[in-house]
Amino acid sequence: MSTVTSRPRTPGQDSPPRSSGSGPMELARRYGESALGAAVAIGMILSIWAAFLYAPTDSIQGPIQRITYFHVPMAWLAYLAFFVVFIASIVYLIRRDERWDWVARASAEVGVIFTTLVLISGSIWGEAFWGTWWTGEAKLTTTLILWFIYVAYLLLRFYSGRTESGARNAAVLGILGFVDVPINYFAVTWWRGVHPESYVQNSATGATPASVFIALLLAVATFTLLYAFLMIQLYRLERYTTEAQQLRARVEYGDDGATGE
Description:
- There is one protein chain.
- The chain has one domain: Four Helix Bundle (Hemerythrin (Met), subunit A) (Up-down Bundle), CATH 1.20.120.
- It has nine helices and two strands; from the N terminus they run βαααααααααβ.
- The chain has helices at residues 24-54, 68-95, 98-129, 138-160, 164-177, 180-185, 187-190, 199-203, 210-252; strands at 2-4, 258-260.
- Helix 2 runs parallel beside helix 9 (210-252) and helix 4 (138-160) runs antiparallel to helix 5.
- The longest helix has 43 residues, at 210-252.
């Protein structure tokens, strides 16, 4: 007697044929990623031009102030990435859909990279303006704590493997870890320190030249597009890695879709 089980479907298997038309969705699917990459490249060129040539040199900080046109957008990108981890983790715990786990994992990787760049660029600015690479004030300390939280998140993902329990534990950490994001944002307001107050709010005041605000907004928009582009690449990598591991498991355990009894 033999029992036939359904073979897991691979991507594209038994799927309805795709339309060969040139409708808006088909064009977006075919050229959207390339257009996004081109927009990021153009935006980066314009952001560099605006930061070094369009915006004036700060009368107090001098040329080192120009690093904030990249430091601030990278901080925004880190906040955005960890917020996506927060939302995706909640949805994963509710729906148990591994696609949301892929989103959380990919976004955490982007967030850690840009938090690292925030710490490095902030230290460079601090050494030039404060005369020290690091101070123990709240803004810097909570940023470092945020970095440790999500590095721990990635380490948990690495050592627990692609298991359901590992994804569940990481989702809980991703939700709890987000508590440090608003603390980090309001640290300058809640605790007095030497770190400048919100640069976006200061740039929006009448005392700040409009070119400074425009250069900053241009960089923020460009880095947001960069986040979207990186997420597409990392999400695809997560999906392919998971499918490859599932295929390897079926090969190793002899799960070819049919068993004899």
